[in-house]
Design goal:
The termini are far apart. This protein is mainly α and 136 residues long. The protein is built from nine helices and no strands. Helices cover 71% and strands 0% of the residues.
Length: 136
């Protein structure tokens, strides 16, 4: 497996974070808060460095639905990227409700759940786009 350049890794991360709805403005602060990391550490990740320890890298991937293979090698491992078990999706959805102070009806929960099962990144975007509707 070949090592990819930092610039390529930075582009992969930027593309992924944009796709899941994390805007460039405020991105670093959000990651710092979510990961309890220093500004310098997050700046390094966004510039293409990898976390210095494996558990932190996996936590980052889990938090943002990023395939660790894609982040480290530039090649997605579909089996990891697109397969999330039922419990993980349910936990994500309940956390989503708490964080955004919204409540999903059973029908809405099923729709978002199905979207997440089909494609984690697109399902998260779908959920984010529901927030104004759910609060309105």
């Amino acid at each position: 497996m070949e090592k990819i350049e930092k610039e390529a890794r930075a582009l992969i991360l930027d593309k992924h974070l944009t796709e899941i709805g994390i805007p460039v403005y405020g991105r670093s602060t959000r990651i710092r808060n979510d990961m309890k990391a220093t500004a310098a550490t997050v700046a390094g990740w966004l510039a293409g460095s990898l976390p210095s320890d494996f558990p932190t890298g996996l936590k980052f991937c889990d938090t943002y639905g990023l395939c660790p293979w894609l982040w480290t090698t530039g090649i997605s491992y579909t089996g990891v990227k697109d397969s999330y078990d039922m419990k993980s999706i349910a936990i994500y959805l309940r956390k989503f409700e708490r964080e955004h102070n919204v409540f999903l009806t059973n029908e809405q929960f099923d729709e978002v759940y199905d979207a997440l099962m089909q494609n984690w990144a697109e399902g998260k975007i779908f959920a984010q786009r529901l927030i104004p509707f759910l609060k309105g």
